[in-house]
Structure formats: C-alpha cells, structure tokens
Amino acid sequence: NAGVMQNPRHLVRRRGQEARLRCSPMKGHSHVYWYRQLPEEGLKFMVYLQKENIIDESGMPKERFSAEFPKEGPSILRIQQVVRGDSAAYFCASSPETDTQYFGPGTRLTVL
Amino acid sequence: GESVGLHLPTLSVQEGDNSIINCAYSNSASDYFIWYKQESGKGPQFIIDIRSNMDKRQGQRVTVLLNKTVKHLSLQIAATQPGDSAVYFCAEASGAGSYQLTFGKGTKLSVIP
User: Fold this and answer.
1) Does A31 touch chain B (CB under 8 A)?
2) How far is CA B29 from CA A42, A56, B54, B103, in A?
C-alpha cells in the first residue's frame, strides 16, 4: 500500500508565477489536509478537504491560495502570484476518517 | 492563544540510553495528542498517539505519557539507536472531529554512537 504521494518534491518559481502542488492520498483515504512548514518550525494547518468539498480552510491565507480535491485525481494546492514569503515546505496528509493523519514527503517551494 | 510547545529544543543521548522528550500544551480542551518523527528532508512520520482518557500508552520501544493536571506530554524512547536521530514534534488535535493538528516547534534528538 503506497503512502501519501506528493509532487513535485522540489519546485522553484519566480515572484509572480503560479505554483501547483499535488497530493495523492493513501488508498482508501478520503480526507486530505495541507500544512505549511517554515524552516525550523512546526507544521501549520492550512486546509482540510474531503472529495469535492472544502471542510475547513481557516488556516489558509485569504488571497492567492486555493485548494481542491476533485472527484477524480489528486488534491491540488494552488498558489497564485507567489512571493518570497511563500517559500516553505508544504505537506499533505491523509486519513480514512478524522483519525490519524499520515504525511507525504512534502513539496519544497522556493520563490526566487 | 492556544499553543503547543516543547521544553528542550535539542537533546543529545548516548546510543543505548533512554531518551525523554517533553511537550507542554495549553489547550485544556484538547483530547488527542500525537508524536511525529521527522527526518531531514522527509515528511512527519507517525510514532504514537494518545487520547485524553488515557495516561500512558506503549508502542515498540516508545511510550507516551500524558499528565492532564499540568498539561504535559512526554515521549520516551528506550535503547535509543542512531536511526532515532531526528526532530520530534508533539501535535495536539483541536477542532470539530479533532482533525486540525497544532504542532510544536520540535526537539532535535541526536544519538551519539
């Protein structure tokens, strides 16, 4: 049973470009969570999704950030018009119910 | 505001010794706690969890202790091995359904061979 998959693992963008981060949950998991981690800090909750629904986006910046989890395909975290402050590691986690969350390897975003 | 924090930012132990990593939390309403291990360049790896109706839970070489009176959580690793070297995070689950994890800053464990 493959774990949570994230791609790309590393992403470099210039200021003003768009970043798309993908997450495929573990098989059988219908709950997806996104977290952001700054260097030497803990992870910060961003958003919680189920298939085709955003359940809680209280941790997500109001502008430029969006997330989706379509009926088919991976969950996408989208950051428009990236700025240097968006540079961080973005982790996706999944769970079968609102239970133990299993994390993917993360996408490290660098904004030049 | 509510927060989860760690007493010690770094911990060095001799291989074979036991390690104890501590965590303080401030949200007395939290009912679910998890320890994660994060190796360099990787995502957090689940180690062990505990619910607030328990004081202690044991896994393979690891034990989590929960003291609700002083809002303190600890992770004990028996016979620490070089492969245990990593950053350890405690996380507190809050929100409806206990899904929104709040992480502390982490403790870096270094095992001396």
Assistant:
1) yes
2) 21, 19, 14, 16
Q: Would you say the C-alpha torsion B25, A108, A40, A102 has a positive or negative sign?
A: positive
Q: Is B97 on the interface with A (CB under 8 A)?
A: yes
C-beta of residue A49 within 8 angstroms of C-beta of residue A76: no
Inter-chain touch A42–B105, beta carbons under 8 Å: yes
Q: Give contacts of B 51-80 with A, CB under 8 A.
A: none
For residue B54, the one-letter residue type is: M
Residue pLDDT tens, chain B, 113 long: 334 554 448 999 999 999 999 999 878 888 899 999 999 889 999 999 999 899 999 999 999 999 999 999 999 999 999 999 999 999 998 755 678 888 887 899 999 99
Measured between CA atoms, the residue of chain B closest to residue A38 is B105
